[in-house]
Amino acid sequence: MNKGDTITIFLNYTVDGVPIAEDDFDEIEFSIGSKRYTLTDEDIVWDESAGAYKIALSQADTFALGYDSRYQIRLKKDDTVVSSGISVLSLGPTISKETI
Fold this sequence. Notes:
The chain has one helix at about 60-65, and strands spanning about 5-10, 15, 20, 25-30, 35-40, 45, 50-55, 70-75, 80-85, 85-90.
């Protein structure tokens, strides 16, 4: 994956060893670089065929990311919030800087 590519991120996470499923949480927040995506803003959607939530990053989104961007997920149910550790998504360079 390179900067300027469109990227689909599947949220294949587990809580206590159980994969997260549709309607498990009141809110899901996925942060990568300086971008924030949420379930309530409909940035995060359930993909029935994959059996997982997903986020679609546009060309503009990936151009805005650094080459190594930190990301983390937070999950809320009622008043309880849990989060993952922080990981890094590495993107390769691209010659063009234009959205096509």
